[in-house]
Specification:
Layout lengths: L1 H9 L2 H8 L3 H15 L4 E2 L5 E2 L1 H28 L4 E7 L7 H12 L3 E7 L2 H10 L4 E4 L8 E9 L1 E6 L9 E2 L8 E4 L6 H12 L6 E4 L15 E6 L10 E6 L6 E8 L5 H17 L6
Helix pairs in contact: 1-2, 1-4, 5-8
């Protein structure tokens, strides 16, 4: 195909041979063999060398095929270096408020050839999907310890309470957990986020106070009814400024360990794109100061 295109563009076999840095007889022989193989004449040889109608169709298609072939090779080489392809990321809902968008944005700037496919889920389903190979990496706070997993802390965050905008503690801006004594603690079912629930339940228990317990059947802050002035949810600080209309956040002053958002991936995943994504995430975490919850 490259030989035919060269002859067509140069208007002769000798000039095409010079361009291709080869002798003219082998070039002529190759094209004659091609014409015999496909059963058509591509060039009129006399009085001047020019394409036949069949030759024009061949050259037009050959240019498209060669361009695609070159692109295929280029993309294959880029993929081997992690510069082209797709990474599949699963994440817990709270990661969407700030962490995940920043990671996706950084990949878009630094590695535009990489597509980041994302999907949210609860920890049990993220765990099953990572084991099955559905995801390359998961962002979660309570993935179970498994020998198959490699993990690294991406971010440490403080707790904040989300309450209705009419809640009496809103004007304070901050409060201790004991200040919510007797109020209704709203949370998702423990089976969906066991690590996070246990962390928050333990923190409330350590206050020595009692709290009503309400398990929300629907995912997301927007589905919680916090308008009664005595209900609260506990979430990570990255949701500040992004809570639903009609709600507000109150900083928690208790001296509690930070909640960790971890990157988790399978040890046997040797994808170059995965390595690049993890490196980019480390860079974002360092730049944003995510490892220091202060």
């Amino acid at each position: 195909m490259r030989y035919v295109i060269a002859v067509a563009e140069e208007g002769g076999f000798q000039r095409a041979a010079e361009r291709l840095v080869m002798a003219q007889p082998p070039l002529s022989r190759q094209i004659r063999d091609l014409e015999r193989e496909i059963g058509v004449t591509l060039f009129e040889r006399r009085p001047v060398v020019r394409l036949t109608e069949a030759g024009r169709v061949f050259v037009e298609s050959a240019r498209t095929i060669l361009a695609e072939s070159d692109r295929l090779v280029e993309q294959t080489v880029l993929a081997s270096r992690g510069e082209y392809g797709t990474i599949r990321v699963g994440y817990i809902y709270s990661a969407v408020f700030e962490s995940l968008p920043q990671l996706v944005g950084e990949m878009g700037k630094s590695h535009p050839g990489v597509t980041v496919e994302v999907r949210d889920g609860w920890t049990p389903e993220l765990d099953a999907a990572l084991l099955a190979g559905t995801y390359d990496l998961v962002l979660s706070r309570d993935m179970p310890p498994r020998p198959e997993y490699e993990r690294e802390t991406l971010r440490r965050e403080r707790l904040v309470a989300v309450v209705g905008e009419g809640h009496p503690l809103v004007h304070c801006g901050q409060a201790a957990l004991r200040d919510f004594a007797g109020q209704r603690f709203c949370h998702p079912p423990r089976r969906l986020a066991p690590g996070r629930y246990d962390f928050m339940a333990s923190a409330l228990e350590q206050t020595g106070e009692t709290f009503e317990d309400w398990e929300s059947p629907i995912h997301g802050l927007g589905h919680l009814d916090l308008s009664d002035r005595r209900s609260f949810a506990l979430v990570v600080g990255s949701v500040v400024g992004q809570v639903p209309v009609g709600t507000a956040t109150v900083a928690i002053t208790d001296d509690l360990p930070a909640l960790e958002l971890q990157m988790v991936w399978k040890r046997d995943n040797t994808s170059a794109i995965l390595e690049i994504f993890v490196d980019a995430a480390r860079g974002v975490a360092h730049h944003e100061g995510w490892i220091d919850p202060a």
